[in-house]
ABC-type quaternary amine transporter
Amino acid sequence: MLNKPAIEFVKASKKFNGTKDYAVSEVSVSIEEGSFITVLGTSGSGKTTLLKMINRIYEASSGKILFFGESVEKLPVEKLRLRIGYVIQQIGLFPHMTVEQNIGTVPKILHWNKQKISERVDNLLNLVNLPPDTFRKRYPRQLSGGQQQRVGLARAMAANPEIMLMDEPFGAIDAITRQNLQDELLRIQRKLNKTIIFVTHDVNEAFKLGDKVIVMNRGKIEQFDTPYNILFNPANKFVSRLVTSDDTLQRLKFLRANQAIIPIEIPINDEMIRVGGEESLYNVLTTHIFNDGKIIIVEDDKNNVIGQIDWKQLQLKFGEENKEKTGENRDKISV
C-alpha cells in the first residue's frame, strides 16, 4: 500500500533573472510520506534549486509544488518553514548560543514552555548520540565538525517537522565521520519514519541512503528509481555514465539485499543460506560465489522471509562486461 504524497512537483520550473537556461525545467515527481529520497547530480544540475523550491527559498517560476496536497504558494512562508526541517553543509549554528539554546530555537519561537523544551533537547541529543549531560551546555566552538552536524540535525528536528530537507550536509566532513553520520541518519529515519529529501553529488552516498534516487541533469530529472534499478537499468547514457564511472562491483557495497529481492520461487528449508535485508549486495555476491551460486533467502530485521536472490539474477544484472569478475574467474573478487 502506497503512502500519501508528502511533496509533489507538477511541471515545476525555476528560471533566475538574467539567465538563459532554466535551473529546474518542468519537473513532475511525487515523493511519498516516510520515504528517504536522495537527489543526485553534478554541479549545476538543479538539485539544490529543486530542494529550495520546497521551502520557498526560491519561488517557482511556473508549475506547482504541493505540500501534503496544499500548494506551497498558498501557505504563509513562515508557517511552511516551521513544518520543514532544513540542514545544510555549513551547519549554521549560532556561535553565541549553547547546544541546548541552538536546539531550542524553534520551540522557543513556538512558545513551548521551558520544561517541554528541556525534555525535547535531551531526547534529541540522545537520538543523535550526544549525551545531554556532556553536550547541552557546550558552545559550537567546543564541538568537532561531526558533533556540530549532529546538533544541526537535532535543531532541524526540534519542532518535529513533517519533512526534512538536507543539502549536502556531510560534504565538508572527513570520510570516517561522514560514514558514521550516514549510519546515524539511516537509524534515525527508520526509527522516526521521517520524510527526508537529501541532496548529494556522491553516487555512493545517494545509493546508501536513498530508498529511491532522483538523478538530475540540466534542470531535468533523468531517472527516479531505486538505487538497484538505476545501477543495473539506467534510463539513458547520462545516468549510465554517472553511476558506472567507477567499478560497478564496488557500488554493490552501497546497495542492500532488500533492494534486489524477487519473490520466493522454491520451498524454503532450514539449510538455505539466509542474509538480512540490510546486508550489502557486495557481501551477497561473495556469499553466492563461495556457496556455488545457491539461492539466498533474504529476511527482515524480525527474521521474516521477504524474498530471494539467486546467482542467475545477479549474473544477468552484471552483464557481459562483468563476466570475468562474477562467473568465469571468481577468484578475482577479493573479500
Confidence is low (pLDDT under 50) at residues 319-335. The longest helix spans residues 175-192. The CA atoms of residues 98 and 137 lie 5 Å apart.
